[in-house]
Sequence to fold (415 residues):
Amino acid sequence: MKFQPIVPRSGLDAIYRLQSWVTPTRRNPAQCLEFLSVRRIRYQVLHSYQTLFPSAFAASQSNPYPEQDDLPSDREVEFMRRIDQTLFPLSWMDWDDCYEHLLSGPLVEPHGIDWWETSLDEFRGGWQLLMAFSESIHDIWSGYEETLITYLQAAFNLSLGHMTPFERIDMIALQQLFKPQPIPIRYLPLALQVIEHDTGNVWLDACSSDYEYSAWDDQRYDWSPQTLRILAIDFRYAKLLLARCDQLADWLEVDTKRIYFLIDLWNQAAKP
Amino acid sequence: MNQVTVVVEGHPISVPAEVAGDDELLRKALSVMGPEYAGAQIQRQPDKPITVSPRRGSKGALPVCLAVLDPASDEINPAIECACWLQQQELQQGLVLERAGETAEAIQVAIEAGQQWIQLSHRALQHLDQSTPAPTSLLIPGF
Fold:
């Protein structure tokens, strides 16, 4: 394909082209694939900026050319900031290795209830009480002398011994029992899904344990407009779901004995 | 002892007349130069020196290989083609922001095709490495 030469529009444009000129022609497929992978991200980011924020992109004065080939351009950084401010968080924006993160794609970090790295007493009281209904939390405490139930009883001056064990609970029946209940009581099954990281929402299901043993790449996505839209919608939905669960936690904090009402419903879902 | 000139692959060498006069003796004498002379062709023409052409062994099923290789199209890894194309585009036009989406897609296609191409090449090389040599009676040109 022949290209109609265009006069460089800026100094960085000219430098960028000259860098391309002085780079020896790539003959090795592996070198070419590496070069293309980096370029693909650069073009994908610019395309997504144009697609998701067309007027901001058109009005942007920031340079699309990077000062060095291994650094993000001002235009790319501007786009990242827009994503961070309006779509979903990019916590690594100000990190030193920001460009490596940019090349790896957006990273979904845990925004749900991450009990993997947090001890129970660091959660607010309402959430601690909700964890009484979580099988995973019970499992974690099972190795200790003090069980989850004895801890909660002591911390909140409650008597929780009459709770039906998990293995005897029919989860479908539980959902049906809670569905017609008033807000926020009906949110208990949802709160359980959030605690168990089983909502189907990437932001709520991500857990710090996912980031161990170099599993970060599993939480990476691409910069295409479609993916960014999905991540943004998911993030908004995650905030909505968390707000509902917080309502339930607030309700429990008003009077911790309200947990007895939840336990009564829970016990009704016991398998015959 | 009379010496006779024998031309071996274009090079004249002197051989005792009684050896040169007998095909089998000549082949036996020349075979010290290499096994290909054990079955060498010997031409005797009046008023011309004796010429010897070695008969070399052959390797591989050459006609089958050539039948596959000859019609195969010349190919360049799509990743190399795309990288050169992109380099040229960027050199002449810089970043073409208006076509960033198309360019990203074209690059993605080239990356996938390039990776597949590498896998296929590796597989073909593996097959060649692992295949058992097959003898043939045909000669490979140039050997």
DSSP finds 13 helices and no strands in chain A. The mean pLDDT of chain A is 85. Chain A has two domains: 11-104, 120-268. The interface with chain B takes residues 1, 3-6, 8-9, 13, 16-17, 20-21, 23, 25-27, 29-33, 35-37, 39-40, 42-44, 46-47, 50-51, 64-65, 224 of chain A (CB under 8 Å).
